[in-house]
Amino acid sequence: MKLKLLMLFIGMVILISAVSCKNNTSLTSSTTPQPTMYSLYELRYKLLAAYPDYFWCDPDLYPVARPGVEQQNAIDQFAAIQANQEEFSAILAHVNLSNQAGYTDDEKLQIYREYKKLNDAVQMVTASSGYTFSIRTGQNQGKKYDGKISNAGVIKVTSETTSFNTCPICLAAGTLIDSPEGLIPVERLRQGMVIYTVDKTGKKITGKILTTMSVPVPESFRIINIVLNDGRRISASPSHPTTDGRVISELKAGDMLDGGMVVSVTPTLYSGSTYDVLPDGGTGFYWANGILLKSTLAE
Question: Percentage of the chain with pLDDT > 90?
């Protein structure tokens, strides 16, 4: 009888120990720290922090800062920025602002500047367990880094190449420039050739080309397509100047451009290079696809 009781007691001890071990194992497993998973926009910030010398072209500041334009754009675009809650939350956390009912114009400007950097300074594409990325650093003769960033924020560079980092402000290839010899694609023009321009009195004259420019565009670059109500159209970089002191990106439907009314403004992905020329004559004006514009190379 005593032996049976002893065996029963030992069995109960073994059973309790087994249950205890199982519970301890489960507890240990459930409390193992898991890596933090970041949103797309938090990962963008991690890349910008990893490459602090990142290069990008701010359309509100290049080629020249125009007083009041950036602030007005910040106000106009604030509702759209705020609508993307994941992105908006990442920006607020980065600039130490709370999620509140209203924001001052200065705060909207601060948020808008972060929004521009997040969307233009680094390119990211969804991949397995994260994203592939491309980011450029340095001015002019700089670097381009391609790689992958995991959802946990681990960065792995797959290639590092030399990159010519400058901001495209010119015309799309194929844009026809008016000349005494007829319409010539802008990429075929060379120094010393003659095109039509305008002198300081507004008179149409011929002008010899003083210099030309060709600028390769970065990945995910968007050119602006403008269509006028008379059928004329032009494709140019956002910061290409008009003859009245504006830039292409400022135009909207209903605005006037060289005597025609703008009916559509469409940003479109563009690859390759943009081009420009500077004629003598004092103004730097020329006709591109029949629309009078100003050269980006003019002072």
Answer: 64
- Contacts of residue 94, defined as CB under 8 A and 6 or more positions apart, other chains included, come to 45, 114
Structure tokens that stand for 127 in this block: 């991949």
- CA dist 72 to 12, 94, 97, Å? 77, 22, 20
Separation between Cα atoms, residue 143 and residue 160, nearest integer Å: 7
144, 162 in Cβ contact below 8 A? yes
- CA 44 – CA 118 distance, rounded (Å): 6
Q: Return d(Cα 196, Cα 181) in angstroms, integer.
A: 10
Alpha-carbon torsion angle 102, 108, 110, 114, nearest 10: 110
Spatial CB neighbours of 162, under 8 Å, sequence gap ≥ 6 = 141, 142, 143, 144
| Per-residue pLDDT tens over the stretch 165-215 | 777 778 999 999 999 999 999 999 999 999 999 999 999 999 999 999 888
- Residues 252/256/257/263 CA torsion (nearest 10 deg): 50
Mean pLDDT of 240-261: 92
**How far is residue 237's CA from residue 9's CA, in Å, rounded to a whole number?**
86
Q: Any bridge partners for residue 28, and if so which? A: none
User: What is the per-residue burial (b if ≥16 Cβ within 10 Å, else e) of 226-259?
Assistant: bbbeeebebbbbbbbbbbeebbbbbbeeeeebbe
Q: Are 176 and 189 in contact (CB under 8 A)?
A: no
At residue 103, the 3 state secondary structure works out as coil
Give the angle subtended at the CA of 106 by the CAs of 103 and 111, to the nearest 5°: 70
The single residue listed with the structure tokens 């071990």 is: 21
DSSP tag of 53: T
Asked if the bond preceding 279 is cis, omega within 30° of 0, the reply is no
Residue 163: its pLDDT value, please?
78
